[in-house]
Amino acid sequence: MSKVAILKTTPATVIADYKRLLDMADFEKHIPKDKTVIIKDNISWHYMYPGANTTPWQLEALIQYLQERGYKDISAVQNKTVVINAPLGERNNKFDVILKKYRIPVLYNYKPSDMKWVKYTPKAKMLVLDRIFPEGIMIPEYFFGKSIVHLPTIKCHIYSTMTGAMKNEFGGLLNTRRHYTHTHIHETLIDLLAIQQEIHTGIFAITDGTTCGNGPGPRCMIPVQKDYIMASADSVAIDCVATHMMGLDERKVRCVWKGHERGLGTGKFEEIEIVGEDVSKVNFGFDVGATFASRVGHVMWFGPLKKLQKLFFHTPLVHAFILGSMTYHDYFWYPVYGRKVVNEWMKTPWGKLFESY
Questions:
Q1: Is the residue at 302 inside a domain?
Q2: Does residue 330 lie in a domain region?
Q3: What is the CATH number for 58?
Q4: How far apart are CA 275 and CA 183, in angstroms?
Q5: 49-78, pLDDT tens digit by residue?
Q6: 304, part of any domain
Q7: Would 317 be classed as within a structural domain?
Q8: Measured distance CA(281)–CA(166) in Å, rounded
Q9: H or E stretch covering 125
Q10: Which residue range forms the structural domain that includes residue 183?
Q11: Spatial distance between the Cα atoms of 193 and 169, rounded to a whole number of angstroms
């Protein structure tokens, strides 16, 4: 039976609580000490926006735990998206401060000097990736034979309904053409999890729900303080529990139940061993909702225009959509709406903890 550990926490105790959480979830049992541990944080927006990105305390607690428990070889890997600037995201979210403090090297999977991309033929039968990338599935050679720890947050997502541990490898294993997969996002996440289980020596997820994201994530959300932290060696199970807690329609989170069907993890809430907090009756009442940008995206990826995807996204026309998304999110939504949200959140106990970094 898959285990998911859950605790309630506070800004004053969160580092210690995270370490206790990792023990409860049997971290050392699943992540070997003689293999490199890759820390895969989550930068959904290069701006600081509560609920959108890995939290500094989530990252710091993991690094402290690893170093205290005798893990010697640790690295952090960042990825590039067409609309996200990873180095800027590191600075704005205080990751750079923490990684420098604990002397953790940072590698960028889009820099040829850091890692090479190689063609990989999965042993598992692929649902969609072999068709989306008929020329071959390319993944970073650096990932082979190493363990990985994912650091997502509890939040909604306009395409995958929720985003968590399974979605976190989306940027790590796929290059900047990953947007080709959006129409089949759930099947893509299943394929990526199968690949992860073939190439990694251990997989673990630590999900931060101190401030969760309700609404059209992963960026334009309403931050909601919930004070939960979660951990598990089963990416399907931890995403299943997060979906349950968020109160989302589980039928729309196909990657969870497809992962269960394919034996990649436990995707039925009642079959998961939950240790710590009893969340069986928790329901945040979250709803994905939509923004102007997400409505346009849905028309392109899932609506009547999806037949024209190759024209829109496999040709230079894609740059118009990239510019449109960046303009909407970075130069309209964030200055008009987002900055006010951030300023209010900074007055909360979690905001004050963030500023302390």
A1: no
A2: no
A3: 3.40.50
A4: 36
A5: 999 999 999 999 999 999 999 999 999 999
A6: no
A7: no
A8: 24
A9: none
A10: 3-289
A11: 8
